[in-house]
Amino acid sequence: MNEMTEPTRTLPLVFDEPRGRRKPPQHLADLDAAGRKELLEKAGLPGFRAKQLSTHYFSRLVDDPAEMTDLPAEHRDQLVEQLLPTLMTPLRTMEADAGTTRKTLWRLFDGALVESVLMRYPDRATMCVSSQAGCGMACPFCATGQGGLQRNMSTAEIVEQVVAGARALARGEVAGGPGRVSNVVFMGMGEPMANYKAVIGAVRRLTEKTPDGLGMSARGITVSTVGLVPRIDQLADEGIPVTLALSLHAPDDELRDELVPINTRWKVREAVEAAWRYAERTKRRVSIEYAMIKDVNDQAWRADLLGDVLTSYGDWGWVHVNLIPLNPTPGSKWTASRREDEREFVRRLEAKGVPTTVRDTRGQEIDGACGQLAAHE
């Protein structure tokens, strides 16, 4: 068996969460429709109630059992306890950009802290969700990476972040009036591919038709990774046309070994080649995420090298580069690139025929960089 298809047990220990932690309570979002029915029946409750609970959760976005009036009053609390336990509690919600950006710090059942961000634009509303409490990838410019990995999140804990955002939009709590979540990006705390099973479970819940899921389009979901090559190949086989985002941050191994330590396991060429295979198999354009760090990775020659690396796999439009002005963390030596260096980087990539955009920066006044709120708490 070659490295591209090796089983999970051979992956490095950095992928594994600490042992001995209690698991989150099981929630209907952890299960498919058949699993929910079976769980209720094992508890001595009517299986058909599972669909009613799913309708309240995914379709009506209800979080108050008193509103579930189609459930018999004598069994309501037990039904909710079985399939809708409380997974996370909001500790703080901060707003920016005239109320169109909302960042929430959540406390999970075991005290772990995670963050999610809702960003509303004129044409869409995007939820940025966490997939792990902390992160084991140890990228030095990332606030989350400096705290290490506490644990993986469950499928339901991931989904609940999106549902909470959907509730806020539906209730008109976000500037701009009532709306709905149209996009989800797995770019919050954690490395999604290191919690693969739960992340794929969450993607399936988000895309399953209501009332079994939220009924979102897979094309509105982006899953990011720092380059876990076997997982990228596995994702390509799932049959779910999500967008893959490869967090590259450097086109050369010497620098990327420092910025993205997993590069010592899978080099730049291996990670980019896996992304290209994903694009080939799914016919979905891959996004290359590149944090622009002043005097570190923003030199013009690195733009040329990045363009050469990406175009060496073909020019059929398989890739797009998303430059991210670094949102610096307090006390960090890393800071955002100069605007003139950013513009030259874009110019050189476009000259190589690589579509390039600069990400709209949001939430800097509310500790917008991922992991900052949790670190302060």
TrEMBL record:
Q: Where is this region: Disordered?
A: 1-26
* GO MF annotations in UniProt: methyltransferase activity
Give EC number(s), comma-separated: 2.1.1.192
Annotated ranges, domain Radical SAM core: 121-365
> What keyword terms does UniProt attach to this protein?
4Fe-4S, Cytoplasm, Disulfide bond, Iron, Iron-sulfur, Metal-binding, Methyltransferase, rRNA processing, S-adenosyl-L-methionine, Transferase, tRNA processing
Reaction catalyzed: adenosine(2503) in 23S rRNA + 2 reduced [2Fe-2S]-[ferredoxin] + 2 S-adenosyl-L-methionine = 2-methyladenosine(2503) in 23S rRNA + 5'-deoxyadenosine + L-methionine + 2 oxidized [2Fe-2S]-[ferredoxin] + S-adenosyl-L-homocysteine; adenosine(37) in tRNA + 2 reduced [2Fe-2S]-[ferredoxin] + 2 S-adenosyl-L-methionine = 2-methyladenosine(37) in tRNA + 5'-deoxyadenosine + L-methionine + 2 oxidized [2Fe-2S]-[ferredoxin] + S-adenosyl-L-homocysteine
The enzyme class is transferase
Major subcellular location class = cytoplasm
Where does this protein reside within or beyond the cell? Cytoplasm
Q: Which residues bind [4Fe-4S] cluster?
A: 135, 139, 142
Q: Which cofactors does this protein require?
A: [4Fe-4S] cluster
Q: Which processes are annotated in GO (biological process)? A: methylation
Provide the residue positions that the database annotates as binding S-adenosyl-L-methionine. 190-191, 224, 247-249, 327
What does the entry comment about cofactor binding? Binds 1 [4Fe-4S] cluster. The cluster is coordinated with 3 cysteines and an exchangeable S-adenosyl-L-methionine.
Task: Enumerate the Pfam families for this protein.
Answer: Radical_SAM (PF04055)
| Superkingdom in the source lineage | Bacteria
Annotated InterPro entries: Aldolase_TIM (IPR013785), Methyltransferase_A (IPR040072), RNA_MTrfase_RlmN (IPR027492), rRNA_lsu_MTrfase_RlmN/Cfr (IPR004383), rSAM (IPR007197), rSAM_sf (IPR058240)
Its biological purpose is as follows:
Specifically methylates position 2 of adenine 2503 in 23S rRNA and position 2 of adenine 37 in tRNAs.
UniProt similarity note: Belongs to the radical SAM superfamily. RlmN family.
List other remarks.
Reaction proceeds by a ping-pong mechanism involving intermediate methylation of a conserved cysteine residue.
Protein's name in the database: Probable dual-specificity RNA methyltransferase RlmN
The organism's lineage?
A: Bacteria, Bacillati, Actinomycetota, Actinomycetes, Propionibacteriales
